[in-house]
Design a protein that fits this description.
The protein has 240 residues and is α/β, with parallel strands linked by helices. The protein has seven helices and seven strands, in the order αααβαββαβαβαββ. Strands 3-2-1-4-5-7-6 form a seven-stranded mixed β-sheet, sandwiched between helices. The longest helix has 22 residues, at 150-171. It is globular, with a radius of gyration of 19 Å.
Length: 240
Amino acid sequence: MTTKTGGGRQLAVRLKTAKKRTTSQQKWLERQLNDPYVARAKREGWRSRAAFKLIEIDDRAKILRPGQRIVDLGAAPGGWLQVAAKRIGLDQGRGKIVGIDLLDIDPVPGVAFMKGDFTADDAPGKLKEMLGGEADIVLSDMAANATGHRKTDQIKIIYLAELAIHFAREVLAPGGHFLCKVLQGGTEGDLLSDLKRDFAVVKHIKPQASRADSKELYVLAMGFRGRAADGRDAGDRDPA
């Protein structure tokens, strides 16, 4: 295992393959050890390198504002919750954030958390109740477990994105925003077309914090037109 030369130059870390470690596990671990965003996240107190993706996206698009109501789908381990909390002024009593995940997470100060499945029939109602009204933003950095088969992984993450979109339509207030992870591969274009029916602006963003060899993209949809645009009566919306 190599760290620095005498002159302080950073060298790549390589590990001897352990008998109980698969090749893919070996590559993942080496990539983590050599990832500057992983080291920076530890130094700055973020729970994951993914925090820098949301920071960069928000620096560009300015979607996080003081006092907003935010839902984070698949919130574990909490890096996006930390970023959102800081940027909406949650520590000053401004706004409300609710995270949901199948996994438990360590509490994030000021953030409400619901352990469960966001696709459950009663999840949208419960989360709006926890928020105290409709959401201004729905965030999703979810990714299904990778199989290593590109087309299969693409289908799985697009399916997750479609579920997240359906959820967003249920809980967003008019004018709200939706941010979701997808993978490049062609079908993400269909996702954009679908979102354009209900949002004023829809675009892809590739943060620099995404690994260079990753097919990861983010879809950002801004300016939700309301559920009337989705074929529902506007009067069916829950009051904010």
